[in-house]
Design a protein that fits this description.
Helix content of chain A: 10-25%
Shape of chain B: globular
Radius of gyration of chain B: 24 Å
Largest sheet of chain B: 2 strands, antiparallel
CATH superfamily of one domain in chain B: MetI-like
Strand content of chain A: 35-45%
Bound molecules: adenosine-5'-diphosphate, magnesium ion
Number of helices of chain A: 8
Radius of gyration of chain A: 24 Å
Number of helices of chain B: 12
CATH class of one domain in chain B: Mainly Alpha
Oligomer: heterodimer
Shape of chain A: elongated
Order of helices and strands of chain A: EEEHEEEHHHEHEHEEHHEEEEEEEEEE
Number of strands of chain B: 4
Number of strands of chain A: 20
Order of helices and strands of chain B: HEEHEEHHHHHHHHHH
CATH topology of one domain in chain B: MetI-like fold
Largest interface: A-B, 27 and 21 residues
Chain lengths: 362, 301
């Protein structure tokens, strides 16, 4: 990874390959997850997130590569010998055991004295606001409560790393949003490294210290939510996270960390560079719709014509066309008193916010 | 009760009438006849005299000495004890073996699973008597079990291990006969088991044994209990294994009943033994109900 990581490494995944027969689910994944980090694996369904998580937990053997946990190689260890715990997607609570016994399961296996088991379980149940439910069976709880029992159960043995496989996906929207903050708080309070799996980009952006975007068994980009959203490195990342405009461009001049490019047959723009390009090269740019600034006609960088407008509630998506035929989506705020509407055919001026354009790797 | 409810109740009765009829004709009436016969007097030429008598039950515990006094005779209690012990031992072995077999099957890919379950039922296709005779040949002098020992010169002067006509032979017979009845219900409950729970247990540091004891067994308990009943009840009344493999020397309750009706022509005593057998079966069923109630409560997801 080009990313430098502060602090110790909690998990190192070195060139991990997973093959199922002749299908390769993970094609050489290398990741370094820092101690006390909220790290998210983000990607569309089927990209190998669960497989990677299960390899860390020990449920799947690696076909190639190594997994390092706080400096120790663990790829050969069975799940019960790895100091990591998992919050399963469907919770997998023991249906015949009370909430208390579920949470106590790991502690008892670690042969903690009964007094400590009792104390830790109560503490964990308080942490997830379930102190009054200790004697219930999982079947007597709501989905959200079961989810929190699963969290408490996995946190109770105080693992070095907590693995969470789409733990919020079975909850309804409101609860899901509330749980985002809860999970962040739990991570901060416990100081345990979280590896969180989701296909929901909003969830990933809202909760993570860093995100790894996966696609078809390969890491596409690793970085902070800001990195990933504001500075996507390739077309897949830019497209998967949020909405974006892809703009074809030609490199005019290469500067320090940036480039001057020509778009739409004549408009000169500046963009950040995260990799090397050569003058004259054809590249694709990413521009988020909210980073277009509309000006009075004749005052901006270029003129554009309004083609259509879609109302989306807090904002509207306006389709603009540049003189050379390039179409751009502009996200326009619907804040009250936000000025007059734009009709189709109207002419406007536009420019781009500072630092808003990213040159994508092909 | 409203009128609708009355009609509803009546209708339910009508709908269930055939079931009550079957239970009445094939179960209640024969049982009542059996209980009635057990309280009559023996006719040594077969059949009974319709005179009330508790002789049959007395005979189970006492015998008359030369002076005509009743003295305690433990012989039949020994038979009862042997029957219960053999049935219990067979059940225990069936639980251990049956659970392993069911566990093995359930861990196979689904298609092979169905094939294996099908194979488990194959012994039912052949007559039990034939299969029991097969065991006589296997266990007997010069049988398959003996031959490797003979080849190694390990056999005594009588040329056999002497397995046949022992309690061990009866036990083998009972286990063999009733094992499928154990495998199937355990398999049924293991098949419903969510194997993600096994992963969850190992994630929480449980090794295989701990997972078995804490997660798999409690959740498979209804199947194990059902299997135990399905094996214990018929094993307790079985007379084919005791007669053929025990050499009819070691009586069990089942062979005793069969002997009283077929050979000794003491119907009341045979019926009384059958009633005693029935009481034992009922007691074990009551135990079953209590156990499943507990396991069922726990097994609710
Ligand atoms: N046991 C398996 N056998 C064969 N293919 C599998 C197995 N498990 C997962 N896969 C495949 O590996 C890929 C990645 O799966 P998974 O890690 O579950 O994806 P995700 O969690 O990102 O949705 C998928 O294409 C899936 O079909
Ligand atoms: Mg998944």
């Amino acid at each position: 990874m080009s990313e430098s990581i502060a602090g110790t490494e909690a998990i190192g995944i070195r060139n991990a390959v997973k093959r199922y027969g002749d299908f390769t689910a993970l094609k050489g994944v290398t990741l370094s997850i820092a101690d006390n980090e909220f790290f998210t694996l983000l990607g569309p369904s089927g990209c190998g997130k669960t497989t990677l998580l299960r390899m860390i937990a020990g449920f799947e053997a690696v076909s190639e590569g190594e997994i390092v946990l706080y400096g120790e190689r663990i790829a050969h260890l069975p799940p019960d010998k790895r100091p990591v715990n998992t919050v399963f997607q469907h919770y997998a609570l023991f249906p015949h055991m009370s909430v208390f016994d579920n949470v106590a399961f790991g502690l008892r296996r670690l042969r903690k004295p009964p007094g400590e088991v009792e104390r830790t379980v109560r503490e964990m149940l308080a942490l997830v606001h379930l102190q009054d439910f200790a004697d219930r069976l999982p079947g007597q709880l709501s989905g959200g409560q079961q989810q929190r029992v699963a969290l408490a159960r996995a946190l109770a043995p105080h693992p070095q790393v907590l693995l969470l496989d789409e733990p919020l996906s079975a909850l309804d929207l409101k609860l899901r949003q509330a749980m985002r903050g809860e999970l962040q708080r739990l991570q901060r309070d416990t100081g345990i490294t979280f590896v969180f799996v989701t296909h929901d980009q909003e969830e990933a952006l809202a909760m993570s210290d860093r995100i790894a975007v996966l696609r078809a068994g390969e890491v596409q980009q690793v970085g902070t939510p800001e990195d990933i959203y504001l500075r996507p490195e390739n077309r897949f990342v830019a497209d998967f996270i949020g909405d974006t405009n892809f703009i074809e461009a030609r490199v005019e001049r290469v500067l320090e960390g940036a480039a001057e490019l020509i778009i739409d047959g004549g408009i000169r723009v500046r963009a950040r560079l995260s990799h090397r390009v050569a003058p004259g090269e054809a590249v694709t740019l990413s521009l988020r719709p909210e980073n277009i600034v509309i000006t009075a006609p004749g005052e901006g960088l270029a003129e554009a014509r309004v083609l259509a407008q879609t109302f989306l509630g807090p904002n509207s998506l306006v389709t603009l066309e540049l003189p050379g035929g390039t179409r751009l989506h502009w996200r326009r705020s619907n804040q009250s008193g936000g000025g007059q509407g734009l009709g189709p055919g109207e002419s406007v001026g536009l420019r781009f916010a500072e630092d808003a354009i990213a040159v994508l790797r092909s | 009760m409203s009128e609708v409810a009355v009609i509803d109740a009546r209708r339910r009765w009508l709908a269930l009438a055939p079931a009550y009829l079957v239970i009445g004709v094939f179960m209640v009436i024969p049982l009542m006849i059996m209980v009635a016969i057990s309280f009559m007097e023996q006719n040594v030429y077969g059949g009974v005299f319709r005179v009330f008598s508790t002789d049959a039950y007395t005979q189970f515990l006492f015998q008359r000495d030369f002076d005509g006094n009743l003295v305690f005779n433990p012989a039949y209690l020994v038979i009862l004890g042997r029957s219960v012990a053999l049935a219990a031992a067979a059940t225990a072995i069936c639980v251990a073996v049956g659970f392993s077999v069911a566990w093995f099957i359930v861990r196979q890919p689904p298609r092979r699973r169905n094939l294996l379950v099908f194979l488990i039922t194959i012994p039912f296709w052949t007559n039990l008597l034939v299969r029991a005779y097969a065991w006589v040949i296997i266990l007997g002098r010069g049988g398959v079990i003996d031959s490797p020992f003979r080849a190694l010169g390990l056999l005594g002067p009588d040329g056999t291990l002497g397995l046949l006509y022992t309690n061990t032979a009866i036990l083998i017979g009972l286990t063999y006969t009733y094992l499928p009845l154990m495998v199937l219900p355990i398999y049924a409950s293991l098949e419903k088991l969510d194997f993600r729970l096994v992963e969850a247990a190992s994630d929480l540091y449980a090794d295989k044994w701990w997972t078995m004891r804490q997660v798999v067994l409690p959740l498979a308990a209804p199947g194990v209990i059902a299997g135990a009943i399905l094996v214990f009840v018929p094993a307790l009344g079985d007379f084919i294994s005791p007669n053929l493999l025990g050499g009819a020397k070691r009586l069990t309750l089942g062979s005793l009943v069969q002997f009283q009706f077929a050979t000794a022509r003491n119907w009341p005593f045979g019926a009384a033994v059958a009633v005693i057998l029935l009481v034992f079966v009922m007691a074990s069923l009551a135990l079953y109900v209590r156990l499943t109630r507990k396991a069922g409560k726990a097994g609710q997801p």
